[in-house]
Amino acid sequence: GAISQVLVTTRPERVGALVLTSCDYRDNFPPKPFSYIKLGGLPGGVWALAQSLRIKPLRRTPIAFGWLSKSPIDPRAENSYLGPVMKSAGVRRDTRSFIRGVDRQVTNEAADLLGNFDRPALIAWSGDDRLFPADDARSLAQDLPKCRLEFIDDAYTFSMEDNPEDLAALIRDFLKVAEVAS
To answer: Quick one: which of 77, 119, 120, 151 could link to 127 by a disulfide (CB 3.0–4.6 Å)?
Structure first.
């Protein structure tokens, strides 16, 4: 979400429409329970964090996927999220660079410029999100001039895992309208 917000405020010509699910916004970057992620900026930090998640029961804790999805994530999907950083030194290097660059000033500056993004936007926020408050969704929707805000029931942050059918339907319907508008 933060990367998308930066993209649409720095290179809006590259984006025809924007869909954001529950995500970082302004000072909630990263959300407090995930502030430990900054350890990934230390030498070997990303590797150590990734290796700790090889212990499968740890994946359901609040500091891993426990507050991101209501139910356990399908193992194949979970491995697709974690596998690259566990197995690839290049992915770990890029992740470490990203973590070192995490700066709330960047997300705040992007949020200040969202009003300039004049293309259709959908905020599909998880109704039961424990990390990203509904007020952030409302503020994001106000920041984006051509925005539609929808809440997805029965979902934590990863609505694509908890309620994929409702999320897909919202995106499908939005894209039909966005296509007509462009």
So the answer is: 151
C-alpha span between 182 and 171 (Å, rounded):
16
Provide the token pair at 78: 């979970």
pLDDT per residue as tens, the chain (182 positions): 999 999 999 999 999 999 999 999 999 999 998 888 888 888 999 999 999 999 999 999 998 999 999 999 999 999 999 999 999 999 999 999 999 988 899 999 999 999 999 999 999 999 999 999 999 999 999 999 999 999 999 999 999 999 999 999 999 999 998 876 65
Residue 21: beta bridge partners? 124
pTM of the prediction?
A: 0.90
In the block, tokens 């029965």 appear at 154
